[in-house]
Amino acid sequence: MTPSDNSNHANVAVRAVEVHKIVRVGEGSLSIINGITLDVPCGQMLAIVGPSGSGKSTLMGLLGGLDTPSKGRIYLDGIDISDMNEFHLTRVRNEKIGFVFQFFHLIPTLTALKNVALPIRFAVHPKYDPHERARELLTLLGMADRTHHLPRQLSGGQQQRVAIARALANDPPILLCDEPTGNLDRKSGQQVIDALKEIRRRLNTTVIVVTHDLTIAEQMDRVVSLEDGQLTEDRSIELER
Ligand SMILES: Nc1ncnc2c1ncn2[C@@H]1O[C@H](COP(=O)(O)OP(=O)(O)O)[C@@H](O)[C@H]1O
Ligand SMILES: [Mg+2]
Fold this sequence. Notes:
Elements: E1 12-25, E2 28-41, E3 45-49, H1 56-63, E4 71-76, E5 79-80, H2 86-96, E6 97-100, H3 112-122, H4 130-140, H5 156-167, E7 174-178, H6 186-203, E8 206-210, H7 214-217, E9 222-227, E10 230-236
Parallel strand pairs: 3-8, 3-9, 6-7, 7-8
Antiparallel strand pairs: 1-2, 1-4, 4-5, 9-10
The chain binds adenosine-5'-diphosphate and magnesium ion.
The site of adenosine-5'-diphosphate has 12 residues, from strand 1, strand 2 and helix 1.
């Protein structure tokens, strides 16, 4: 069934309806996202694959409310974010979305624990005790014995697991990961993917992962392919769970 603005939003974490992104470049304009329609059910692990420059990061930015569409609509948990101003967008983003990037963007002078606790300290209505929550999440990610390490004292894979814990700090229902293993060797990359699977299993988080790596994509529930800003393939994967 093609999702439309009027159909039921129950159990749909992320919905894009005919989304376009057109940017001005010099005198002209460039169409980066060309009519994407996509429903991501709550708790799904979705891989987005596609060649470099196909619009994957732009799409993630739109789905996560870092950017607004030129045309079309985007809903997070049924909330239409398409025309929101920055103030409201920031609020919805903080509540709904955790971001994980290729380069971990941890604060170098803070320990793993403090990096994870930081978003809770900044939350307007914190749900958790920052240190308690940070310790819990780091434990869930297999980092219980690294809580007092600085980022530079951790391997790339460990840093990424701290970044995932930080993304989960305020309990977002949706995790958007843009090439989370792009800077890691295969073994560390697989550990990061295993950590994401564990998160989904334990917290029922909706997880969207952009990846170049087909062996990673095949481990998700579903793989969509992006080419020139359009979805060219949408494939469900049967997993023995
Ligand atoms: N703000 C922007 N202005 C102009 N072009 C952009 C902008 N953002 C992205 N692009 C272009 O849009 C295309 C898609 O970019 P991107 O979403 O980063 O692709 P991917 O993540 O799949 O590599 C690329 O050709 C890129 O150069
Ligand atoms: Mg990209």
